[in-house]
Structure formats: C-alpha cells, structure tokens
C-alpha cells in the first residue's frame, strides 16, 4: 500500500489532505469530527485581533454556480474571518492539538498591518502548541476594505514586511496564503520568500459576483436590496489555482519553495495533479462544505489506489513530476500533429461537434444525410473543440499522426504522409481491423 504520510515543513500528517481555513475549521466541534473522518490536518478559520467584534451579515452569505445536473461548480461567499472570540478559539486550538498530536493544526491569522498587532497575537498562538501559522493575505471582501486580507496580499512590500515580523516573533513555520486577485502571482510569492516565509499556500478566493436577481436588480447574495462582490471558490477555480501553483513552482526565484495547494480540490485526482505540479499537500474547503467531512475517505482511497497502480510508494515519489513539462508557448513543438477521430460506435448523432466545427471553427466535420459525422483530416487543425463539446466522453479523441512539418508562412502542415491518415498504422480503426 502506498504511504500517504506527508511531512510539510517538518509537520507530519497521515495524508496530504488538510481542511482549508473556512467554516469547516471554525470550531473545536468541527475539527474533532474532521479528524475522526480522516483529515490529515486543518488550517483553523482565520483569527483576528481582540478589539471590535467581527460581525457577519445576517442575510445569505453564499452565491453559487451549478452544472446542468445541479452539481455545485462554483461557490461565492461574503463571510468575514471568525466571529468567535480570540480567547475561545485559542483555548479550543490548544485542546484539539493536545488530543490529536499526529494531525497538523495550523492557525490562520489576519490582524492589522502594524507590527504591534502581530507582536501581540503571535506569542498567544504559539502557546497553543499548534504546528504553524498561515497568514491570511487573501480574503477579498470585508477585511480588505479595512486594510487587511487581499489589501496586504496585493502589495509585495507589505507581504515581505509582515512575514518578517512573523519570523521575528514566532518560532514555528510560517505559511503565507496568497490572493489570486493580482496580475502576476510570482511577485507576491517572491516577496513571501524574501520575507523568510517557509511556504506559500494558494489560492484564496477570487473576486466575483455570481448573479444578478432580475426582479430586485441586485447582485446575489442580496442583503436588504444590495449586494457586494464575494470570494469565488470550488471546482470552477481549480484551473486558475493550478496555473498559479505551476508559475511559482517553475519560477527560478521560488522554485523549490514548499507549496500548499488550494482551489477546487474535489477528488483524489485534483490532489494528485496539484502535487505533480509541485505542491507538498493540498487544502480543501468547498468539497467538504458540499459533501461533508467523509469526502476525504474517497480522496484517500483514490489517491492510494492510483499510487499503487503507478508504483509510487510515497507522495514524494511523484511530487513536482509535471513541473518540467510546463513551458512557455514558444517552446511547444509545432511539428506535433493530431487529428480528431469520431468513434461511430459511441456517437449518438447529436450533431454538437458538427455545429461547433461548422459554425465556429474550421469546417472539418462532415455530416451525411443519415447523420454520420466524420472528420475531414485535411481541414482539421486539431483544435479539440469537438472533443470538448461532445456529450459522450471518449467518443471523439485526438489521435497523433506522424510528425508533420509546419510551413511557417502559411501555418499549414506539410508533412509527407499524414494526409493518408485513413490507412496509417497509428489509426486505431486500421489497427482494430487487422
Ligand atoms: C465560506 C468561506 C469562508 C472562508 N473563510 C476563509 C478564512 O477565514 N480564511 C482564509 O484564509 N480563507 C477562507 N476561505 C477560503 C478558503 O480557505 C479557500 O482558500 C478557498 O475556498 C479555495 O478552496 P476551495 O476551492 O477548496 O473552496 C473561505 C472560503 C469560504 C467558502
């Protein structure tokens, strides 16, 4: 059996699945149940300093985007950091860490961008025995307007400054959580590194308005007739997070810096992809909020089964394996040629591929009178749109054909033999017929 144990910044956890700082980790009751369900670690819901209490809205906090089957694809929230007292949270963290020494307990913190505020809170957090801290420089709503959260995360100099304070007043690992609401994620990541951060975690939520109520003419969620932007997360944000993780993993200045990946992790496969892209572990929020704590069991068994199948005995075995294969566009091989292939056995004759290709792409799909759809190899530019719009998974595939040569003036493939694809040995239908 594959060993899922991870040691992230020297912090051991039985598996790479941590709960991200959010409602699932807001209190002792939740965190104990999460650990019983099998989560390897938690980042406690963000603590603020003592002072004016944090007051959340009493109307709806969440908006959402769904797929046609009502599966939740994107979640939007306008929630603030914890609205429970600092003292209560610190007491609970202390008890939980004592009872679960084998799990990772990280404390997320967001206090004003003043040295004294950090100097005050850090020793109290350290006294809980928690394994490390995560600096919430990412929350895009509510706290940002007060000069915290993403207001700090959008200014690399502030990130560096606060990280330096934390390294000065706290002895355990410091993770800097980055906001995706910036132009180039490498700048804040570099600032975190320069400030002495032990790791970065990303992404926090993305600025968003999920919908407008066309009766009240207000953004949703609507609070007394008004709405505001919230933070977007869930499966829909995974591609954005994966790219940002890749950017940090392959940037020469931050390459090798430990990364805790967050954003849309819903299945073991998402986690494996982030780890292959250089992450040391993953954090999960929306999937737990959608399916409950037990979803981690599927993640554990799925990852473990895949690792066994691939012969990976530990997480370390495949961590970062995909990073060398991320490149810039200009280094892509223009002589690599594929063509779309429609399986007539699987085709349900819906015609989506035809409509998409005929109306918006390269007129490379032919429709016969009895609705048989075939690809015109000479016209197919391998854009992959037909594969993506086809409702039957695996019905249309992109098949590699012998290396062509590109005429750089016309952009056309001028390979000697790819045109005769119907009889080429790489063509699966030819192979099957033999
Ligand atoms: C309701 C809600 C509250 C959140 N609160 C916090 C928070 O207090 N601190 C923080 O760092 N991130 C917070 N987040 C962001 C998550 O930790 C995480 O970065 C984000 O949801 C992306 O992960 P996901 O796609 O798995 O949900 C919150 C997210 C949600 C949905």
UniProtKB/TrEMBL annotation:
Biological role = Involved in pyrimidine base degradation. Catalyzes physiologically the reduction of uracil to 5,6-dihydrouracil (DHU) by using NADH as a specific cosubstrate. It also catalyzes the reverse reaction and the reduction of thymine to 5,6-dihydrothymine (DHT).
- Species source reads Epibacterium ulvae
> Which GO cellular component does the record give, naming just one?
cytoplasm
Write the Enzyme Commission number(s) for this entry: 1.3.1.1
Keyword set, alphabetical order: Iron, Iron-sulfur, Metal-binding, Oxidoreductase
CDD domains referenced in this protein's UniProt entry, alphabetically: DHPD_FMN
EC class, as a word, reads oxidoreductase
Tell me what this protein is called. Answer: dihydrouracil dehydrogenase (NAD(+))
Please list the residue ranges annotated as the 4Fe-4S ferredoxin-type domain: 338-370, 371-401
Q: What is the lineage of its organism?
A: Bacteria, Pseudomonadati, Pseudomonadota, Alphaproteobacteria, Rhodobacterales
The source's domain of life comes to Bacteria
């Amino acid at each position: 059996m594959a060993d899922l144990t991870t040691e992230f910044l020297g912090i051991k956890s039985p598996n790479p699945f941590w709960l991200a700082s959010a409602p699932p980790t807001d209190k002792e009751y939740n965190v104990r149940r999460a650990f019983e369900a099998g989560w390897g670690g938690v980042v406690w819901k963000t603590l603020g300093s003592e002072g004016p209490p944090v007051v959340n809205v009493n109307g709806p906090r969440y908006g959402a985007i769904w797929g046609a089957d009502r599966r939740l694809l994107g979640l939007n929230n306008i929630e603030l950091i914890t609205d429970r007292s600092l003292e209560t949270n610190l007491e609970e963290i202390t008890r939980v860490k004592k009872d679960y020494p084998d799990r990772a307990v990280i404390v997320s913190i967001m206090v004003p961008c003043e040295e004294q505020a950090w100097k005050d809170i850090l020793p109290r957090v350290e006294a809980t025995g928690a394994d490390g801290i995560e600096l919430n420089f990412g929350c895009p709503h509510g706290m940002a307007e007060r000069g915290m959260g993403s207001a700090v995360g959008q200014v690399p100099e502030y990130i560096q400054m606060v990280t330096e304070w934390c390294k000065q007043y706290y002895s355990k690992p410091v993770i800097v959580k980055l906001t995706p609401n910036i132009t180039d994620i490498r700048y804040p990541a570099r600032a975190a590194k320069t400030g002495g951060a032990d790791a970065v975690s990303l992404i926090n939520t993305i600025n968003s308005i999920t919908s407008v109520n066309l009766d009240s003419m207000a953004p949703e969620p609507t609070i007394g007739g008004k709405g505001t932007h919230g933070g977007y997360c869930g499966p829909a944000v995974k591609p954005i997070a994966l790219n940002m993780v890749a950017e940090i993993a392959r940037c020469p200045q931050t390459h090798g810096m430990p990364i805790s990946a967050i954003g849309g992790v819903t299945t073991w496969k998402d986690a494996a992809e982030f780890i292959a892209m250089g992450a040391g572990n993953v954090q999960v929020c929306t999937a737990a909020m959608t399916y409950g704590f037990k979803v981690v069991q599927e993640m554990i068994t799925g990852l473990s089964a895949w690792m066994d199948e691939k012969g990976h005995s530990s997480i370390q075995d495949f961590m970062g394996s995909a990073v060398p294969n991320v490149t810039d566009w200009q280094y892509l091989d223009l002589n690599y040629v594929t063509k779309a292939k429609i399986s007539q056995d699987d085709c349900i004759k819906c015609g989506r591929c035809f409509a998409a290709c005929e109306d918006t792409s390269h007129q490379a799909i032919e429709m016969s009178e009895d609705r048989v759809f075939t690809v015109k190899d000479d016209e197919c530019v391998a854009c992959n749109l037909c594969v993506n719009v086809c409702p039957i998974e695996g019905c249309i595939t992109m098949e590699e054909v012998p290396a062509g040569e590109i005429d750089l003036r016309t952009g056309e493939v001028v390979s000697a033999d790819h045109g005769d694809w119907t009889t080429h040995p790489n063509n699966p239908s030819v192979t099957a017929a033999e």
